[in-house]
Amino acid sequence: MDNSTLDLTSEISTGVRSLFYAVPPVESSFKSIDEVPKYVDKAVPYFFVAIFMEAFIQLIRGRKDLIFRWNDAFSSLSAGVASQVPLLMVRNIEASAYIYVFEHYRIAELPWDSWVTWLLCMLGVDLGYYWVHRMAHEMNFMWAAHQVHHSSEDYNLNTALRQAVLQRYTSWVFYLPMALFIPPSQFLVHIQFNLLYQFWIHTNVVGKLGPLEWILNTASHHRVHHGRNRYCIDKNYAGVLIIWDRIFGTFVEEKDDEGISYGLVHPINSWDIFYIQLCHWQYMISTAMKTSGLGNKISIFLKGPGWAPGKPRLGYLEDIPDIQAPQPRYEKDLSLAMTFYVWTHFFIALMAQNFTALNRESLGSVHTLCSILFIMWTLTNIGFFYENKSHAGLSEFLRCATFLVADYFYCNTASCPQSLYIMRIIFFFSSLLSLYHIFNKPSAKKID
């Protein structure tokens, strides 16, 4: 077996194990932040393999109701892509703030290559995540971002990737105490592992895991967290270790005799990616404007989503409807041909995002900015198609035409990779199809 094969095998092994926090300290301790692998970026292929494996398992089990829906899958995956787009231009604020505090205010510096440091950082990040997550449910301005993750009415591995663009801008402060003594290289490893671990627990395939349920956050525990049944509300905030919920009184066990209905108590009912990300901000501002008293207006943002004047900080649980499963799910869908079309362009946008993320140091700022605009315009248009917007065809024609014009003026044909010729063909025919859509606008298929 040659070295290249060994390296590939090792990389795959590390990638898979990183999803389960199973990369030991000897393999995941680094002296400098520049040496820390981009575990999350490298995990993207494993996400998709796992998603289709989950769908196959549900198919052979005869649970077609639990197989991902293409429209909901787009909504989840587009949110995941959009949440990573700001990182193409600027460093993660969690990392930047942590590094700044460590460099200027650290009290002590634990050794980067010690398993004790590794373990302390793992526990510190997980405890920090518990409080980030809990506050994201108990403070309305943080919930405005986090509700994106809960907005899916499905519960599968796609849902794990449904992330908010704005959440990281409120979460960074919870990790700063560790920066007083734990090196940033350790923090950057564990903040990624903590996120990756939570991928596999977003599934109905995995049942209860016996004694592990006492210590680890599992699929069973996290199903409760995503439920909108009354007993599920504001429970099981853990990232990796469920012990924090047991310690702080927010744990509840999944009921075997009661099915879980997933999603928000008040569903969003949209596949528009910008609306999903921003709708709760719109609601909060509108509510604050209609509420009398400055203190009450401020409380709309700082207290729980269920708060109103005269109620306790988190509102009354009894005010939440006692929703039971199954519940009807929001459903607007496309024809098979249009589904193939939009998903072809989604995967092109995903490849553009992944390529830019892995090569952002060598790409210029203009190239990166163009990639961001291309990705976001693609996701926006797909949302328009799923929502059957009247201007979807025109926006798509302009996007495809812009790509072809930019390609004509920007790319030197002699040095272009062969794959770009395929892209040109796709976008040329896509521009024609979008023109056809403009003049022969099909009606979306609505399923009750």
List the helices and strands and how they pair.
Layout: H1 3-18, H2 25-28, H3 39-42, H4 44-60, H5 70-84, H6 93-105, H7 115-138, H8 140-150, H9 157-160, H10 168-171, H11 184-197, H12 219-226, H13 243-248, H14 273-290, H15 294-302, E1 332-333, H16 336-358, H17 365-386, H18 392-410, H19 418-439, E2 445-446
Antiparallel strand pairs: 1-2
Helix pairs in contact: 5-16, 5-17, 7-8, 7-11, 8-14, 14-15, 16-17, 17-18, 18-19
Overview of the molecule:
The protein has two domains: 9-248, no CATH class; 334-446, no CATH class. With 448 residues, it is mainly alpha-helical. 56% of the residues lie in helices and 1% in strands. The radius of gyration is 23 Å and the shape is globular. The longest helix is centred in the N-terminal third of the chain and has 24 residues, at 115-138. A two-stranded antiparallel sheet has the order 1-2. α7 (115-138) packs across α11 and α8 runs antiparallel to α14 (273-290). The protein has helices at residues 3-18, 25-28, 39-42, 44-60, 70-84, 93-105, 115-138, 140-150, 157-160, 168-171, 184-197, 219-226, 243-248, 273-290, 294-302, 336-358, 365-386, 392-410, 418-439; strands at residues 332-333, 445-446. The chain starts with a helix and ends with a strand. One of its GO terms (cellular component) is endoplasmic reticulum membrane. Residues 339-411 form the Alkylglycerol monooxygenase C-terminal domain. Its main location: endoplasmic reticulum. GO terms for molecular function: glyceryl-ether monooxygenase activity; iron ion binding. This is Alkylglycerol monooxygenase.
